[in-house]
């Protein structure tokens, strides 16, 4: 039996860690690894057209499965293309291992062809970033990289020179049991004691929830019932906490709606559960409201707000410890007041997308999102482009505990949706995956539409085509600048899709929309619905001032995107039924 080389051993370790695909583009220094995959039935090579797509796809796969995913790039420019998708995966806490192949070891530091220094380049977007300099080093280093990615939630980068990859592997490599899942973290008794006292002393408590509430829906609802608390959420918390939630008061932030802002400012105790909500101007300043933060990542505690108590722990485990100990509250006046404000706020904007929508041309984009929400599967995965599509997803997609919504919500990159859909669809070809793409984001990585066709991935792309970089136009508008350089001269994208071998349909009238979406969803392979939408969709967010938008894409905070909230108004009306009658 021939002795393994380093590349083969590397692939074996990935397979043992549960990796099922390696996304990337073949080339020179990466060839030994790709050839090893060709001969290993446990892992598939997924050929994308751009390495950035490889990193986004791996990050999406990791978010869907919760398991380690992997991507790779060849030396120099090849692995450098990974960086944007890796930033996104890292900031989304998606466990991803990236292989950055490298030039021959004898040439490193001598200005060789395509030379870069991956061990420096990826430092900021990874928990672990090291170069393999000998065959003997490889097994332990890769195992360490895997444990960093899985254990801390984020990216590890392994740099492997092509000549090392081709060398014989050590015959007695050290292998140990790999960490492939994360533990839960329980807070200390002292913190629980302090938090119990703060809750019992408070008259008005509000919960504000983020993605850290994943898997804790039941615990959050039980806790809110016990303390009669309204529940607001950040965008990344929407899919985990908004459904089956009779305490829901909406979302805060520039894309927010409802009474979440009021609930977080009119309480006397605000509890931040599993959220790294970055816009501190939307949070109370701590002078009138006491603030507690619960997070599994201790480095995130207190970096947005001045805290009265920091609690290091998993949200679910924290609430399991906390709920039985807090005193049951009977006064629901604050909760009922916030629920009423929430319903009134939604009633006020619902008309924005219901008036004459069947005749308005170009089509209201919010109407497109509303119809999409109705016809999509109950367990669909939505991938969402940054910009206006973020707003349509925030206000119109109805979570139900089975749907997933993935986007570049922390990194804020363009062009994420379609390529994230690649990774989501590879996980399960039978599950509906819908990419809510803007024309700007779609065209940036449009080459990877061919990846969908090549692998016959049944991703459905709903293209919000307003022929502009709409969010950038808003930035210019609120800054008092004329829009410049934001107009796209677009082709008939449906015709492009058909030419590539996919299903394509163009929609220019509202009455065509529902039928076009249904036809695309019935199609067995990739499909694109090119919807010509109105670029002039603007309205006021619930509460805004100029200082709220610092550090956000908008340079001033007087205008964001269209009102209207889809089926969320029905949820708000339903929750009002829970208010006790006098």
Quick structural gist:
With 582 residues, the chain is α/β, with parallel strands linked by helices. It is built from 23 helices and 21 strands. GO terms for molecular function: catalytic activity; magnesium ion binding; thiamine pyrophosphate binding.
The number of strands is 21
What is the mean predicted local confidence, pLDDT?
89
Q: Which CATH architecture of the largest domain would you pick?
A: 3-Layer(aba) Sandwich
Can you list the strand order of the major beta sheet? 10-9-8-7-11-12-13
Uncertain residue ranges: 539-563
What percentage of the residues does DSSP assign to strands (E)?
15-25%
CATH superfamily of the largest domain: Thiamin diphosphate (ThDP)-binding fold, Pyr/PP domains
Might you state the CATH topology name of the largest domain? Rossmann fold
InterPro entries: DHS-like_NAD/FAD-binding_dom, POXB-like, THDP-binding, Thiamin_PyroP_enz_cen_dom, Thiamin_PyroP_enz_TPP-bd_dom, TPP_enzyme_TPP-bd, TPP_POXB-like, TPP_PYR_POXB-like
Pfam families: TPP_enzyme_C, TPP_enzyme_M, TPP_enzyme_N
Keywords: Pyruvate, Thiamine pyrophosphate
Family: Belongs to the TPP enzyme family.
């Amino acid at each position: 039996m021939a002795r393994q080389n380093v590349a083969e051993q590397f692939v074996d370790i990935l397979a043992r860690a549960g990796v099922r695909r390696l996304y990337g583009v073949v080339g020179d220094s990466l060839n030994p690894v790709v050839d090893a995959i060709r001969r290993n039935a446990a892992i598939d090579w997924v050929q994308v057209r751009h390495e950035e797509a490889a990193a986004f796809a791996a990050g999406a796969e990791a978010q869907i499965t919760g398991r380690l995913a992997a991507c790779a790039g060849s030396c120099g420019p090849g692995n450098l293309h990974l960086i944007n998708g890796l930033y996104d995966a890292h900031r989304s806490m998606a466990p991803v291992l990236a292989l950055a192949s490298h030039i021959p070891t004898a040439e490193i530091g001598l200005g060789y062809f395509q030379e870069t220094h991956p061990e420096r380049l990826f430092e900021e977007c990874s928990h672990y970033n090291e170069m393999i300099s000998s065959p003997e080093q490889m097994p332990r280093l890769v195992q360490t990289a895997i444990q960093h990615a899985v254990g801390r939630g984020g990216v590890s980068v392994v740099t492997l020179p092509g000549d090392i990859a081709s060398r014989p592997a050590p015959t007695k490599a050290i292998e140990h049991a790999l960490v492939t899942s994360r533990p839960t973290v329980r807070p200390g008794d002292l913190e629980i004691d302090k938090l119990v006292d703060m809750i019992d002393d408070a008259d008005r408590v509000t919960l504000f929830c983020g993605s850290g509430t994943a898997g804790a829906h039941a615990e959050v609802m039980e806790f809110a019932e016990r303390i009669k608390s309204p529940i607001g959420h950040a965008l990344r918390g929407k899919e985990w906490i908004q459904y089956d939630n009779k305490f829901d008061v909406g979302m805060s932030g520039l894309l927010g709606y409802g009474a979440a802002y009021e609930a977080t400012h009119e309480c006397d105790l605000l509890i931040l559960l599993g959220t790294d909500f970055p816009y501190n101007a939307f949070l109370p300043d701590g002078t009138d409201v006491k603030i507690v933060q619960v997070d599994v990542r201790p480095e995130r505690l207190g970096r947005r707000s001045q805290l009265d108590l920091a609690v290091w722990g998993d949200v679910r485990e924290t609430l399991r410890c906390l709920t039985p100990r807090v005193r049951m509250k009977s006064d629901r006046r604050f909760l009922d007041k916030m629920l009423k404000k929430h319903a009134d706020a939604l009633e006020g904007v619902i008309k924005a997308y219901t008036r004459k929508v069947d005749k308005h041309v170009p089509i209201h984009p919010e109407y497109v999102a509303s119809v999409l929400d109705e016809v999509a599967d109950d367990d669909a995965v939505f991938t969402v482009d940054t910009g206006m599509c973020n707003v349509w997803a925030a206000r119109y997609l109805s979570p139900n505990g089975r749907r997933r919504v993935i986007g570049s919500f922390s990194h804020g990159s363009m062009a994420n949706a379609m390529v994230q859909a690649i990774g989501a669809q590879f996980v399960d070809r039978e599950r509906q995956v819908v990419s809510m793409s803007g024309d700007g984001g779609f065209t940036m990585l449009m080459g990877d539409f061919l990846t969908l066709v090549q692998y016959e991935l049944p991703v459905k792309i709903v293209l919000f085509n307003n022929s502009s970089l709409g969010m950038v136009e808003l930035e210019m508008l609120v800054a008092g600048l004329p829009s410049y350089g934001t107009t796209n001269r677009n082709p008939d994208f449906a015709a492009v899709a058909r030419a590539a071998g996919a299903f394509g349909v163009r929609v220019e009238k509202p009455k065509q929309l529902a039928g076009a979406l249904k036809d695309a969803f019935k199609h067995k392979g990739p499909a694109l619905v090119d919807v010509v939408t109105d670029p002039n969709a603007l309205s006021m967010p619930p509460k805004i001032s100029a200082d709220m938008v610092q550090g956000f894409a908008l340079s001033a905070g007087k205008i964001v995107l269209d009102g209207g909230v889809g089926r969320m108004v029905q949820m708000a009306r339903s929750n009002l039924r829970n208010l006790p009658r006098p």
